[in-house]
């Protein structure tokens, strides 16, 4: 299987602080990779650097053989990278359907449109006329994922899906993941919740202080290994 | 290096030298220049002092407190009309009239701040302009202020021209020095430090409890009172004010050019900018509107390419602060130890 | 002129102010900047129309049709060339850059067309009137007002219904996330300023046909446009239309009291609105 996303020697700085140190990462087409790690491990930084909303200091980000690290975020969308950002960031003055339509601003050809997103998340369909400012956390997360899908990405970056949500809601959203993957989208998910990460992913990569400390197929890793790597013990 | 070995310094020897040099210039302007140049030049130099006051105060607002006002001509007008009305109609001695005109400007600024502070950013800028326009239109309707034709200063009647020009010159120099010193002291005060913190990092400053609105109001009122002084000086030089002449937005345009060219956000920049603007205006006045076309282009280029202005370019070559506001942290004791921190 | 007539005149004048203010309101809503050259651009458009009709002998309507896209292109270039760059440096820079542009334009107009007042001749249209009950209303004033209402409605519809309009509202809410949707902020800002400068050019043409103007007339145009935006409340173009109407009526009713009080009455209404708005006037987003 060829790598859809190849990250090599990636350094990212927040001012004087270095958040990622020569990070290596690879996601094959059709695969689901979960990046896990504690707060401040550099997970969100990694996703933002791949999506183009953070500048990289060194290293490469390659999408299907094409280097993209020098491209602004909006051009990476056209190439097939979509990010659901931390905190969901729903546009508050747009209603739900308009939020989805903005997601399709630079849409590629593909299976995702309003109908298929509504089909995937009936919850979103019910709320289509509601203002983006008046959504529950779970509704926001579903809209954010739907909005990212509207661009028909090859690579979907999901940041902290479970953060601040009730377990039932988290379960519902993760239940939709296989249907996204089966339509040909490769998923890179960042998650603090180990159970969700191990449950949804083919492979897991654990970060600690901006470096990879453990990686392997989700099935082959014991919970103890992961916990040890997670906390850097 | 232990904590006690660290010392926080403001300024340094270069600062004292530079400040000394500026002091010498002021002394020369006070005691030598008046006896060396023509009366006309002396009168023109008052224009330089006015520019120093205008630049310094506009910079306090925009460079430190983040307030871009295009309505400072309101206080030129109040200062100009104020000094003439208070000395001629009310009968105050000239110096007292100048001071009272400044106080009046400050009071009007304080009162109108409650209106214009409701506007942010660019809308604040135009809001202050509307206030100035209102004052212009109202002044033109008041018969006691001469209506649309304005007022002429009578207080100098019977004074010979030499005494008059010399008096205004020395007054202008003294006021310019006072305003610059006051601006420096304000920026060293708690209010000033709070504003600098706010400019550099608004979130952190708010978190540290900097009383933002209060600090901004202090700067707005103080700056406007000083612009009132400049307005009084202008009236004492031209001897005549009309609504159109003193409430003209051109005064604020001059302030902006002085600050941008000299360097926004430093005390030194506007002084340098005032000198440059004064010389350019003198030399290029014949060019008419083309001169302002060039100035406008220069302003655009400065903002985009060299936002720290001439003073910023100068200090990149030679890092001096005549009015030290920044602090440096270094090891205590003789400088030669600097490279060899002791291990304890 | 009686009081009812003054109010009707004011409403018609207000349509012109709304047209002047539309772009100011849009640009502030989308990118939170105020273009201080807004008024001068209107006056510059009036001069270009004057030049096209007098020197090139174009028919008036054609002159207006040429000037609007020309100025829209100029607006796009200004935004992409100068203002986007200034925006990256913070809040004050775009304001100061637009101030500089305003000074340059004003004085270029002065050098090119002199400081004399001019006006664009419109022939019989200037004196034609229609009777509405006991009142006679100027046809030209009606046309201007209709143009104002029409442009505001069109821009509002554009924001509410089109892909680019939605992208503008999304960018107004959250520019960083909008980029993650594939929206090129620099281009979008260029389009917003193109609309703003294009509409203010149309407004400037109407100003040039209805009144005497000179290169410095842009100052007054900027102030009137700004007052219309603030009176109407930030954040909605319908509000700006309303603000323009209130300002127009205040000015004509003020003039009815005493010809010298017209402009002043508008300022006073503006200051009163500023005084009584309880929450102040902090920026909100453009709404559909």
Query: What overall form of chain B do the CA principal axes indicate?
Result: globular
Q: Please give the number of β-strands of chain C.
A: 2
Cα-based radius of gyration of chain B, to the nearest Å:
22 Å
Q: Please tally the helical runs of chain B, counting DSSP H or I stretches of 4 or more residues.
A: 14
CATH topology of chain B: ABC transporter involved in vitamin B12 uptake, BtuC
CATH architecture term of chain B: Orthogonal Bundle
Main sheet of chain C, how many strands, which sense, barrel? 2 strands, antiparallel
- In whole angstroms, the N-to-C terminal distance of chain B is 6 Å
As laid out across the biggest beta sheet of chain C, the strand order is 1-2
Strand count, sense and barrel status of the largest sheet of chain B are: 2 strands, antiparallel
How many β strands of chain B by DSSP?
Answer: 4
GO molecular function (chain A): ATP binding
Keywords (chain A): Amino-acid transport, ATP-binding, Nucleotide-binding, Transport
Domain ABC transporter (chain A): 5-233
Organism (chain A): Nocardioides lentus
What features would you describe in this structure?
The complex is a heterotrimer of chains A (233), B (344) and C (288). By secondary structure, chain A is of the alpha/beta class. Chain A has helices at 43-51, 73-79, 96-103, 114-120, 122-126, 137-149, 167-182, 194-200, 223-231; strands at 3-14, 17-28, 32-36, 58-63, 66-67, 81-84, 155-159, 186-191, 203-208, 211-217. A 6-stranded mixed β-sheet of chain A has the order 6-7-8-3-9-10, sandwiched between helices. Chain A has a 4-stranded antiparallel β-sheet with strand order 2-1-4-5, with helices on one face. The relative contact order of chain A is 0.19. The mean pLDDT of chain A is 91. In chain B, α2 (39-64) crosses α12 (268-284), α3 packs antiparallel against α4 (94-116) and α11 (250-262) packs parallel to α14. In chain B, 69% of the residues lie in helices and 4% in strands. Chain B is mainly alpha-helical. Chain B has one domain (3-336): ABC transporter involved in vitamin B12 uptake, BtuC. Chain B is globular and about 65 Å long. Chain C is mostly helical and 288 residues long. In chain C, α1 (3-31) runs parallel beside α5 (139-161) and α10 (237-257) packs across α11. The longest helix of chain C has 29 residues, at 3-31. Chains A and C meet through α2 and α3 of A and α6 and α7 of C.
